[in-house]
């Protein structure tokens, strides 16, 4: 436990070590067991060491709570994010879920040309406003009930993630929703570059920002906490799980929503089924001041 905790703390220097931090809750549980075992056996040195490791993991586990979004009792916007998986063979199940979930804005990841043709046309009556980069090195689709002021997309590169974005009027001032799909966990150096690019982009925006999608990072990862700090974002989910799905029980939360401080959290719900994907969909009810 001590070695794993120390290695995870070095993720800023060695990005591959971030994989340890994703399972912070396991380190927390393991260090608690070690500390209790040492206490019952009477080993003072081992107990003190185990207690120190436990305290360190409690502090690291609490770090994401420092950027938790403030709450509101009433929702003004519903946003669903869903990595549908490029190999999905149940597109009508995805369509059925999205129609029933009835979000105002939907962001889909891993949508190729096949899935775009099998999903988007069936939702046009509910979501007439669509921006898609599914047929490029991007694989994202943003669906909206309401029209936007302007919108765009950009492809995946070594230094930047694929994004789709739309700028909406809002009731008092415009706001921007950006959908994204960060580099995979086994591409940690690329993840660092993607986080830096996002932080720079979001810092330049004067309007409220809503960042949603598949981050491929858990709330306990150093990189996601760095992004929240650099771009002044608040996290809208921390303790849920969205991956892996299908035949497995989800154990980590990779799909999330981070937003400016004036965007408040109302509710987070996780899909009851994967609808042919390896992720569960996640829906955020939020309120914009």
Task: Give the arrangement of secondary structure elements.
Elements: H1 2-9, H2 18-21, H3 24-41, H4 44-62, E1 77-83, H5 91-101, E2 105-109, H6 113-119, E3 129-132, E4 141-144, E5 150-154, E6 163-168, E7 175-181, H7 188-203, E8 209-214, H8 222-230, E9 234-235, E10 255-259, E11 263-270, E12 282-288
Parallel strand pairs: 1-2, 7-8
Antiparallel strand pairs: 1-12, 2-4, 3-4, 5-6, 6-7, 8-10, 9-10, 11-12
Helix pairs in contact: 3-4, 7-8
How does this model look, in words?
The structure is a single chain. The protein has 289 residues and is of the alpha+beta class. The chain has 2 domains: 2-65; 72-288, Deoxyribonuclease I, Chain A. It is built from 8 helices and 12 strands. Helix 5 links the parallel strand 1 and strand 2 (105-109). Helix 3 runs antiparallel to helix 4 (44-62). The mean pLDDT is 92.
Unreliable stretches: none
**CATH class term of the largest domain:** Alpha Beta
User: Portion of residues in helices?
Assistant: 25-40%
The biggest beta sheet reads:
6 strands, mixed
Number of strands: 12
The span between the termini is: 43 Å
Kindly report the name of the CATH homologous superfamily of the largest domain. Endonuclease/exonuclease/phosphatase
What would you call the structural class? alpha+beta
Spatial strand arrangement across the major sheet = 3-4-2-1-12-11
CATH architecture descriptor name of the largest domain = 4-Layer Sandwich
Q: How would you spell out the order of helices and strands? A: HHHHEHEHEEEEEHEHEEEE
Rg, please? 20 Å
Number of helices: 8
Strand content: 15-25%
Average pLDDT level = 92
* CATH topology name of the largest domain: Deoxyribonuclease I, Chain A
* Large-scale geometry: globular
Structural domain tally? 2
């Amino acid at each position: 436990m001590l070695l794993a905790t120390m290695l995870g703390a070095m993720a800023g220097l060695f990005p591959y070590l971030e994989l340890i931090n994703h399972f912070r809750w396991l380190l927390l549980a393991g260090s608690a067991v070690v500390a209790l075992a040492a206490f019952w056996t009477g080993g003072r040195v081992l107990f003190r060491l185990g207690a120190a490791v436990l305290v360190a993991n409690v502090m690291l586990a609490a770090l994401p709570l420092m950027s938790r979004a403030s709450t509101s009792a009433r929702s003004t916007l519903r946003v669903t994010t869903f990595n549908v998986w490029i190999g999905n063979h149940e597109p009508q199940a995805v369509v059925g879920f999205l129609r029933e979930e009835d979000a105002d804005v939907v962001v889909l990841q891993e949508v190729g040309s096949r899935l775009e043709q099998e999903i988007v046309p069936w939702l046009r009556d509910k979501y007439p406003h669509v921006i898609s980069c599914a047929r490029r090195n991007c694989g994202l689709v943003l669906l909206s009930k309401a029209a936007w002021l302007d919108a765009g997309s950009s492809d995946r590169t070594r230094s930047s993630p694929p994004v789709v974005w739309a700028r909406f009027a809002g009731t008092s001032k415009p706001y921007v929703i950006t959908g994204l799909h960060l580099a995979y966990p086994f591409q940690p150096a690329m993840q660092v570059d993607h986080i830096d690019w996002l932080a720079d982009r979001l810092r330049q925006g004067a309007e409220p920002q809503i960042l949603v999608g598949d981050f491929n990072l858990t709330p306990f990862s150093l990189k996601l906490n760095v992004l929240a700090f650099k771009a002044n974002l608040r996290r809208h989910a921390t303790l849920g799980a969205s991956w892996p799905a299908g035949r497995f029980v989800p154990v980590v939360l990779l799909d999330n929503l981070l937003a400016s401080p004036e965007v408040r959290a109302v509710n987070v719900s996780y899909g009851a089924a994967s609808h042919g994907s390896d992720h569960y969909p996640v829906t955020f009810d939020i309120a914009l001041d």
